[in-house]
Amino acid sequence: MALILIVDDERSICELLEIALRKEGHKVELASSVEAARRKVESQIFDIVISDMRMPGASGVDLLKFVKEMSPDCFFLLITGVPTLETAIEAINSGADRYVIKDHDLVDQVRRTVRDAAANLQLKKEAGFLRRELRRLTGLDNIIGESPKMRTIFDLIQTVSPQSSRILITGESGTGKELVARAIHENSARSSAPFITINCGAFPESLLESELFGYMKGSFTGANENRQGLFQAANQGTLFLDEIGNMSLTMQVKLYRVLQEGKVRPLGSAAEADVDVRVISATNKSFEKEIAEGRFREDLYYRLSVIPIHLPSLRERREDIPMLARHFLGKFQKEMNKPIQGISAEAMRRLEAYEWPGNVRELENTMERAVALETSSEVSLGVLPSRIAGYETPMDAGGNGALHLSVEGLDFEMQIAETERRYLQAALEAAGGVRTRAAELLKISYRSFRHYAKKHNV
Fold first, then answer.
1. pTM over the 0.90 mark
2. 3-state DSSP call for residue 308?
3. For residue range 347-363, what is the model confidence (pLDDT) as tens digits?
4. Which terminal Cβ of the chain has fewer Cβ within 10 Å, N or C?
5. The total number of structural domains that make up the chain
6. Whether 177 and 288 share a structural domain
């Protein structure tokens, strides 16, 4: 659907084209003079303008120049009832995108032209916002993990993707919130439309408003042309509002109104535009605390979190660390063209033991550094950062370290089982896969070792 302005002093022509284009699914507005058209262009961003060339007062060419100055990407179609070589040359030289003659075939010519123009506008949006790296970065294949918590996330993504419900993704920094948002978009019916992301914490309030909602020429200093906001650019697609918890209260009120009414009003405009956008937001903050302390609106929270998804930290799914580490090893080994085939047992033990406050992003950076520095055929302990290579768990330190228990508590039996599994794996690696030797290292009988190995599927 395109927003189209038809300008002609002949009312019958306006109404004829309006009926034809509305049947095509477009939104159409009319103006009977260049002056009236200018007022509309000053308050709205049109995708296509169709104008008669000769009208009382200012001409269609005058309007063409005005529109192109205000909105350079607007498609402009000139029509005329006096077809001469001079008028055709004037239309082309003035920058018209197409030139059509008023005759018995006018409606069909305009309809075909608008179809092509609308299709090209959509392609431009996709090329501008979607094609750069979208396919490389999106999809479930880019989310690595086989732990029970991650399998639950995968199932949830596949369940909610076909819907249009708003989603709020929570979790610590570096857990992959944008990857999940992209995967939801790619597995939805909106996948052919743009996926646009904005970090709400990276913009001051005034700039964030113009980025989200757009602006009209002259609405503030530096606004030299009309510009679509991200809501309009993401129409029919998905808008990902990252770090939504950093949005000011004033902007929260404006966002709530857009979500409630499905309309945006660019800065400096008197008109509203309909938008059909799926909003996915994310934060690393606790909304309960933000709401209680008056920093986030409770009504907006409920608008955003129709479907909440919480991503576990990396230390909550330690069983995924080896898989992630090997994935990043393969990635950077290829990029740097280095013959590194694996990760030493001692280095892997330290990777699994470390707390990873920066989560998956920190692990990725660690593996990039390790591959860059490593000179042997496997990643060794020596190329890991000192904070990881020298990290000791309370058990490593002989039980004298302080145990840290979060206010949310933990699943005690699961933690014990995970510790057992990790020691079984570590012993097997140290013993070169020989189970009797692994049992000796753990100072348990071979029968007990088999029991634990079966219990934990090692």
1. no
2. strand
3. 999 999 898 989 999 99
4. N
5. 4
6. yes
